[in-house]
Design brief:
The structure is a single chain. The chain is of the alpha/beta class. The protein is built from 17 helices and eight strands. The chain folds into three domains: about 180 residues, NAD(P)-binding Rossmann-like Domain (Rossmann fold); about 100 residues, N-(1-d-carboxylethyl)-l-norvaline Dehydrogenase, domain 2 (Orthogonal Bundle), CATH 1.10.1040; about 80 residues, Orthogonal Bundle (N-(1-d-carboxylethyl)-l-norvaline Dehydrogenase, domain 2). Helix content is about 50%, strand content about 10%. An eight-stranded mixed β-sheet has the order 3-2-1-4-5-6-7-8, with helices on both faces. The structure holds nicotinamide-adenine-dinucleotide. The site of nicotinamide-adenine-dinucleotide (NAD) has 21 residues, from helix 1. Nicotinamide-adenine-dinucleotide (NAD) binds next to helix 1.
Amino acid sequence: MKAEDVKKIAVIGAGDMGHGITAAFLLGDYDVVMRDIEQKFLDKGIASIKASFDKFKEKGKLTPEAYDEALARLTTTVDLQEAVKEADFIIEAVPEKLELKQSVFTDLDKYAPKHAILASNTSNISITDIASATKRADKVIGYHFFNPAVLMKLVEVIKGEKTSDESIQVGYDIAQKIGKVPVIVQKDSPGFIYNRVNEPTLLLLSKILEVGHPTPEEFDAAFKPIMPMAPFELVDYVGIDIAVHGLNYFAQVLSEDYKPSDAFEAYLKSGNLGKKTGKGFYDWSAGRPKIDLSKATTEYDPNHLIALQVNEATKLLEEGVVDDPRQIDLAMVNGGGTPVGLFALAEGIGYPVLLAKLEEIYNKFPLNVFKATKTMKEGKIKV
Ligand SMILES: NC(=O)c1ccc[n+]([C@@H]2O[C@H](COP(=O)([O-])OP(=O)(O)OC[C@H]3O[C@@H](n4cnc5c(N)ncnc54)[C@H](O)[C@@H]3O)[C@@H](O)[C@H]2O)c1
């Protein structure tokens, strides 16, 4: 199958990601069927799609005619068989549980046309494990959008052990067709690219909480001038529960080093999870926290975090997860990370500077995750 043969898309799940992915494909001129288990979830998804389209209309990015025309290409149903019977490309965005995803994929395999490609928007689960629930592992791909999917450009297109190159190519081409920036992940590996590169930063925050200094505000104040959201503030925004679960997941599948510190776990147990509960590291009850820049620590600066990211990115190259450093740069820029690619940034700053920063972190917290890789030490990557 080729991308031109894909006429009809089905999206399974109408939640935060499912509705955004549906909106993105509607805006990309595709016919989309969106499926959820109850009508009320579909109604919420439809309302969210309309809310996104309203914003585009207000900003003049969508004409009233295009708005109506895009919505007219959307159908919704609670019946899975009905949803996928004519679909050429199906994207699953149901909750992040392996058994649930496997049962959905077994059904998709049963009811979707034989030629259809089955894609999962999983953040972390192995594509190979999901594909094992089907008899068409060659047609199962990872398809990782970023939140909000209607706006964020990056789509990680992930190869499972048995995925064919043809299926990857179709996923890649249709992502491009709807104006996204696809990046191919050659090997099914924890956190794929974007989340993997960012996880050591979360580990550093976890360790800083453990030793008790600097405080989240002192730390954030050093980053706030150059980041729209400082690191601890971002964890509060996304949810302390999500951050702790992420660390636990990486501890299970990648390295014990990631095990969240008791101090981090304590926030989880207290129920203060950040913005959504009104309190986390900061008080959010009156809106975004005000960070006092005069409190900035001198112990850490942005190059420490860049060093952690570049070092982790070199592991992706050494492990064969990605074969071209420019693809990592593309992913980091379009996933919302940095305005400039990571390796481009490293060239500008200079590898010896970053290596020294990494060593400072390693000397404080001697964990394997923080150890410089061979590629990092050589410092020869050019993009
Ligand atoms: N939220 C994010 O920032 C984000 C980013 C990237 C990837 N993801 C991944 O996307 C997936 C979905 O996450 P979300 O945040 O949209 O979750 P969500 O809870 O907002 O939405 C999930 C939806 O799936 C529906 N659902 C449950 N079982 C179903 C089934 N059998 N068939 C159809 N629908 C079913 C639920 O009713 C719900 O509406 C997860 O795998 C998650 O890891 C999430």
